[in-house]
Specification:
about 30% helix; two-stranded antiparallel sheet; alpha/beta; 8-stranded mixed beta sheet; 14 strands
């Protein structure tokens, strides 16, 4: 079998993440673009050429992934199945879209996947024009639904007209689009960028940004100031285009958000503007002591036997799309912590999202009472376990006790703690989290989303919470803007902000 050309596992997961989110998130009034310093990439006759060492390192993995994905993929994905570099040069027509031809309206897209998304939007999303009556409760000051008043006379109408500038169905008619054009221009450019990024995923091109490096020697320290310095010091393939950077960071934002907080070289500190509090330094110092153990002089012989500390457990609660990320993405987290085993534990009723090939779930037995799916051969120092269950149920059963601030931490990716549709699910869980006294890292889609979660925690648990890190923009947020298929005007960035707290 020919070696894989593009990691379709990454491509498939990224396409799924780009779909509708479980709850509507408010769009930012003035989206801010984050650009990156361009770096050079090796080119030969205009064709990308991956480094030979990287090809040898990933050939076997890419080959097995490509075979598994293309065998189970629907027809429209099989048409863009991975192929070898030599075959790509001989058959350039296999590329569906060229970089200069990525803009298409969703309804007339060359990709059937995007055409189906357009049909979904037109049947579920509502026109934001203020002449229509409200269809939901306004949850933020940036929600376009707030412009609709009780004086609106027209009933709600589904979006049907596609803006010629961004290519998305955003209004029910051309008349409403023209009448509300000034408001639409605030996000039109960002919507067009998201449109082109989605078409890029289905273009069939070679994706060098999905080639991940292996482990480095311990003496080479990563620079975690921002995306540029991290990718350079970890020796990723150079990314020459902003669009490629957006695609790469959409996946890497999950492990890197965790690493940027708990790593000893974290960009967050207690200096002015560093956002870390005194209590945060105490909690994270204990965790970092275990994540960066001193050399013990251990060896393979009898004289080199040393006691082995337990793995550091990272509980990811309310897991959704992050649990289905390619395991090569999560292994990048392990490579930042030498000689320290990690155990990732995904917990939540939606933790098996996009993992249909792993059904049915294991039977619940006396030795596995919650039917956990264990992946213990990912690498020498990483293990992943998934539970389709609420955390508070497992906590009451004392399944994970005891907790140790030196070896445990919780992570909540976009939990929606203060969102009206999901707050009730966290009311029972939050007291149990604070009871453990271990760090809790939380992220948000937007600044409003994050501040709402923080306010909800402080109101529900007044006097019982210590702030470890102030809420603010995440240094390793996704640089790509995502669409909400239930409301095309609602745009957000994965892990835009991050903050941390713990129980007193």
């Amino acid at each position: 079998m020919q070696s894989g050309y593009t990691c379709q596992s990454c491509l498939k997961r990224l396409s799924r993440i780009s779909g509708a989110k479980p709850f509507a998130r408010p769009a930012r009034a003035n989206p801010v673009y984050t650009t990156t310093r361009k770096r050079y990439y090796h080119q030969i006759n205009g064709k990308f050429k991956a480094l030979a060492t990287q090809q040898r390192r990933t050939a076997a993995t890419a080959e097995s992934l490509n075979h598994r994905v293309t065998r189970n993929a629907p027809g429209d994905l099989k048409s863009a199945a991975p192929f070898g570099v030599e075959e790509a040069i001989r058959n350039p027509e296999r590329v569906l879209l060229q970089p200069s031809n990525l803009f298409h309206s969703f309804s007339n897209s060359p990709s059937p996947v995007i055409r189906r998304r357009a049909a979904f939007m037109k049947s579920h999303a509502y026109c934001p024009h203020p002449d229509h009556r409200q269809t939901r409760i306004v949850t933020s000051p940036h929600d376009p639904e707030g412009r609709k008043t009780t004086k609106s006379i027209h009933p709600p109408a589904h979006v049907n007209f596609e803006c010629p500038d961004c290519g998305l169905p955003v209004y029910c008619s051309e008349r409403h689009w023209m009448d509300d054009y000034e408001h639409h221009t605030e996000i039109c450019d960002t919507l067009r960028q998201a449109n082109e990024d989605d078409h890029d995923l289905h273009s069939g091109r070679f994706f060098p940004e999905f080639e991940y490096p292996g482990p480095q020697i311990e003496e080479i320290l990563p620079n975690m100031t921002n995306w540029d310095t991290y990718l350079y010091t970890r020796e990723y393939n150079a990314i020459n285009e902003d669009r490629s950077m957006r695609q790469a960071t959409r996946l890497l934002t999950y492990p890197m958000t965790i690493a940027s907080v708990i790593h000893e070289l974290s960009p967050y500190n207690i200096r002015a503007g560093g956002r870390l509090t005194t209590e945060g330094l105490k909690s994270l110092s204990a965790l970092r002591y275990s994540l960066h153990p001193p050399r013990s002089g251990s060896g393979l012989g009898i004289e080199g036997l040393r006691p082995t500390p337990p793995a550091v457990r990272i509980f990811i609660l309310g897991a959704r799309a992050e649990s289905s990320l390619p395991r090569q993405v999560w292994v990048q987290l392990e490579y930042l912590f030498h000689r320290c085993p990690l155990h990732l534990i995904f917990i939540g009723p939606e933790s098996m999202t996009n993992r249909d090939e792993e059904f049915p779930l294991p039977e619940r037995t006396a030795t596995n009472p919650f039917g956990g799916i264990v992946e213990d051969r990912i690498s020498n120092y990483m293990k992943i376990t998934t539970f389709v269950e609420y955390y508070h149920t497992m906590h009451k059963a004392n399944y994970f006790q005891p907790f140790d601030p030196y070896f445990d931490c919780f992570v909540l990716f976009h939990p929606g703690l203060g969102h009206p549709a999901s707050a009730h699910e966290w009311e029972e869980t939050l007291p149990h989290l604070l009871e453990t006294k271990v760090p809790i890292i939380s992220t948000g889609y937007t600044d409003w989303d994050m501040q709402r979660d923080k306010k909800w925690v402080e109101e529900k648990m007044a006097g019982e919470v210590d702030l470890l890190m102030e809420a603010g923009e995440n240094r390793f947020r996704s640089l790509r803007w995502d669409l909400n298929d239930l409301d095309p005007g609602d745009i957000s960035a994965g892990n835009w902000g991050v903050w941390a707290f713990r129980g007193k």
